[in-house]
Structure formats: C-alpha cells, structure tokens
Amino acid sequence: MYIIQLDRITINHAGHVIFRDLSWSIGDYDRVGLVGPNGAGKSSVLKAIVGHVQPDTGTIVRMRGISVGYLPQEVTLTPGCTLLDEAMTLPPDLARVEADLARIEAQIADPAVYGQPEALTRALDRQEKALAEYERLRGPHHASQVRETLIRLGFAPDDFTLKTDTLSGGQKKLVALARLIVDGPDVLLLDEPDNHLDLEAKRRLEALVRDYDGAVVVVSHDRYLLDEIATQIAELADGKLTLYKGNYTAYTTERELRRLRQQQAYQAQQKEIARIEEMIKRFEHWASIVVNERHIKQARSRRRMLDRMEANGEIIEKVVERRQMDLQLNGSRGSTKALEIEGLTMAFGDDLLFMGLNLLLRHGERIGLVGPNGAGKSVLFRLILGELKPFEGTIKLGPSNRIGYYSQEHQTLAAWLERTPIERVRDLVPISEGEAVAFLGKFLFSYQQTRQSIGTLSGGERSRLQLACLMLTQPNLLLLDEPTNNLDIPSAEALEHALEDFEGAVLVISHDRYFLDQVVDRVVELDNGSLRSFLGGYTDYLAAKQ
What residues have CB less than 8 Å from 5, skipping those under 6 apart? Predict the structure, then answer.
C-alpha cells in the first residue's frame, strides 16, 4: 500500500533545475536505498517529502495520519545539554499531551473547579481522554525506550552524562536517530545516517533499520549497508528516478542488463529509422522524376509514422555512459619492505593509546586498518608521516618509497583554502593553466570550479582534488585515511579500479566495508591498544571475528 506519492514534482535551486516531473510512490513497509551521484538531488527529495522544501511544480500526497521522521546530513543538538537529556526530548505530540495533562491537573487543584461538581466532572473527563492519548503515545514508557534505544545504538550508561558539545559527528547522528526511533514515525527518511560511524556502529544501525516497524528511505554511499537493509533501490540520476527491486548488488546487475537491452533496442530502432528515412528519400526522388501522387503519399505516410513515434515518446534514447573520475595511480616499484613498525608505543600524558605494535607492509600489499573510533588509527598515520614522535618503538620506510597521503578531513589542502584548484595543481607539476584545467576536468571539475577558491568546494569536490594531487605526485606507498567518506558511489568505484592497477603498497583506514572487500587482501584491527591481523577482505575478517 502506497502511503506517500510524489506526482511530477520539479525543484529549482538558485535557477538550476535539479529534477523535473519526478514521480515516486513509497509503500508502508518499503526499505529503499536512494542512490545517485553527488548533486543529483537526493537530499532535496527527502526535504520535499518532509516539507522543508516546496516543489516548484507538482504535488506530494501523504495518506491521512501518516507521520514522517527526518534525519538530516548535519545534525545540530542543544549546546550544553547532556546526551540523555537531548535524547529524552519529547516528540511534538507527546509534549502537547503532557502540557495538556499539566494544565488539567492545575485546573483540578483549583478551588474554583474542585468545589463545583460540574466543572470538576468536565475536568476529569478531559483528564481521562488525555491519559488515554498519553498511553497510546507510549508516554509512560518513553524514558525507558530512550535508554534502551541508546544502548542498542552502542552508547553505554556512562555516556549518558556526556555533554552534546563533546560528541563526534557520528554520535550526534545516533542521538538524533534514537529520538526518531522512539517517536516511531510511519516513514523514516535518513540522509547518510552512517557517516562517521565505525564498523560496530554501522552493524547496530543496520539491525535497527531492519527491525523498524515502518517504511525507511536511506540515502547512503555505503554499498554494504544498502546490501544489508534495502529491498528496493531508487536511482536518481540525470533528473530521473528509476526503481530496481532488491539490494545494491542486485541493482548493479539489473542496471547493467537494462542498459545493455536499451543499447541493443536503440541500435535496432536506429537501423529501422535509417531504413524508413531511406525509403522516404527514395519515394520523394521518384515523385520528383515522374510526378507520381502515389509516391508522394507513400513518402508522407512514412514521415507521419516517424513523427508519431517521436510524439508518443517511442524513440529509444541512446545509452550515455556517465562520466567517471579518471584516476590513475602510476607509482613506480618501491622497496620490498614498504613499511615496518616494531614495538611502537604511543601515549598522550598518562593516556596510553597503544603499546608494542608490530606491522610489516610489503610492496604490492593492500592492508585495511580498522577499529573503533578513538582507537588511534589516525594517530598511527601521523606517526608514520613523522608529524608525531612515538613514546617507544621504530618506524622504518623503504628507502625507495614515496608516501602519498590522503587525509580524512582534507588537511592536505588546509594551506590552500584561499587558492584555486588550478594553483594547487600547478604547484605540483610545471604545466600551463589550460593543461591544469583539462587535468581537473578528468576529476569532474567544471571550468568555473577550477577557478574558485578551494575553501568554497564541497567535501566531495575536495576529496576528488586530494586524489588528483595524489595522482600527480606518483607515490608508491599510499596512506589513505577514509578515502571514500565524501565520494559518491561512481567516484568510489573509480578509486577501487585505480587501486587494482596500482603497483605500490597501500595502507588504508576505512569503515567502508564494500570498499574493503574490493580492495584489501589483509585486514588489521587496532583495538584495545593492540593489532590483530586477518587474511582477506572485510567479509573474511567479519567471519573470523564471529
């Protein structure tokens, strides 16, 4: 049963049409993964459904009584509040009923009311109805549900007193999500709920979404998550929404089959159109020679046939290959031992982060470094880069290795925020401005974007610029810290293909489980101050852990 219907909606942003005449129906227990390239309008669709954005044309119809909960990409919590108090914030309906009960109780306590039987009876009737509504909204169980949901999302009771100002981006999302889950809307709209979550938190998120009693629409670049929770994929690209049954893997297979069938049908139709066009020319030529009315009618008849096909939308579109980032990592051969860590210990004051770490990364090897947030993975990278000095132990780099570093928060671009991508590229290699523009075009930058300051670029654009810079420096030892965090799926796939062909060694921190399965041949887990090694990708690591 469809509970929300979008009928031919169009949304403009700053004069730019994001999509036009988009239609979509959402069922009462759908599990939908909404995918598409950055800028396609996925967040705009969610905002339109929840009412934060009004479509320029078209309508959005909800079934009567249907409630919608929305988790935005960026969550803002009340400053200075504790985690638990913020999560305990009442849903609007429950807050209204609690306020009604408080007013009624004050009236009942008023001598002017309890001294008059009729007024008291009316107040008690209102109280009875309000209490029934309070029970229906599960008011008596709200506090216990909040605590239970927070624990299911990975928070410990000791975390409940943490101030919201100290929470990470991922933790803030989980607090906001807990409020939504307890509120229990009929439809959950989640915009990249997995961002900044570690592997364990993502598994908990998946379980919560799978068990949710209602419809869920998730925007995510996490292909593993989409495989685990989605029963339908909605692809928004080039202003069109296309639906596919099944999870992400099923979607990729079906999409390629559809594209292949469309291309075959297009070629067959074009051959038929060319044959008809040739017939029209032939009839028109004969008619011009012998002035034969029959030939003129035959030419007109076939011309009307082609016109009807076009008017009725029967012309099959040619399959257009979507542009992908053209990333090529051509580092030369490095030392046999690319990186060797022995007895590495790191502490900040009295806080011991890890002790006695040993790790050997050989030439050509791909290692995925995983572990909970705060375990010290990024600190380990800073030690390898020489930005920090270890408390004890040694870090040896192969003498012929050149490090290429991709930073999670784009720190490698921090000194260039007021400069342009062209200037950044030309600082790395001696090329002309035109060559720099052409090079950046391979990374999907428009001419205008190459000339604007790096500080104005989006997270995804800065990620692509970092990768462009890596390509120019031609490293043979890659240290990648969450490289897919801000990339859309096509760009993540382009990075995976580039790493397949990369000759050097790779050490990558990632919570992108699909990426780890595609790229690494060994997973190393940093947890509780020590390292454990597992052969294979993420799926092998998970099986070994279980």
Answer: 23, 24, 25, 26, 60, 61
Instruction: Using DSSP bridges, classify how beta strands 505-509 and 366-370 pair: parallel, antiparallel or unpaired.
Output: parallel
- Strand partners for 241: 236
Q: pTM for the full model?
A: 0.80
> For domain 2-90+140-246, which architecture applies?
3-Layer(aba) Sandwich (3.40)
Q: How far apart are CA 30 and CA 231, in angstroms?
A: 7
The confidence band for 507, taking pLDDT boundaries of 50, 70 and 90, is: very high
What digits encode the pLDDT tens for the residues 394-411? 999 988 889 999 998 888
Average pLDDT, the chain: 89
CB-based contacts of 24, cutoff 8 Å, min separation 6: 5, 6, 45, 234, 241, 243
H-run or E-run covering 35? strand 31-35
**Which structure tokens are listed for 22?**
């988009």
DSSP annotation of 412 reads G
Q: Copy the structure tokens of residue 453.
A: 């300051």
pLDDT value for 134: 79
Superfamily covering domain 337-545? P-loop containing nucleotide triphosphate hydrolases (3.40.50.300)
Residue 50 in tokens:
């929840």
Phi, psi at residue 361, to the nearest 5°? -115, 115
- For 341, which DSSP code? E
Backbone phi, psi, residue 376, to 5°: 115, 15
Per-residue pLDDT tens for 81-134?
Answer: 999 999 988 888 888 887 888 888 877 777 776 667 777 778 778 888 888 887
Per CATH, 2-90+140-246 and 337-545 having the same topology is answered yes
User: How far is Cα of residue 27 from the mean position of the Cα atoms in its chain?
Assistant: 22
- Tell me 166's DSSP state: G
Cβ neighbors of 256 (< 8 A, separation 6 or more) are: none
d(CA 396, CA 65): 64
Distance CA 476, CA 470 (A): 10
- Cβ(98)–Cβ(89) under 8 Å? no
**Could you give the 3-state DSSP secondary structure of residue 69?**
strand
Q: Tokens in use for 38?
A: 């950055």
Sign of CA dihedral 370, 373, 375, 380: positive
* Dist. CA 13–CA 44, nearest whole Å: 9
What are the domain boundaries of the chain?
A: 2-90+140-246, 92-136, 253-311, 337-545
**17-33 pLDDT, tens digit each:** 888 899 999 999 999 99
What is the three-class DSSP state of 215? Answer: strand
% of the chain at pLDDT higher than 70? 98
Residue identified by tokens 């020590």 is 530
Pairwise CA distance, residues 383 & 105, whole Å: 63
Residue 441 CA to residue 449 CA, distance in Å, equals 10
As given in the structure block, the two tokens for residue 174 are: 């989980």
Tokens of 416: 């260039």
CA distance 479 to 517: 18
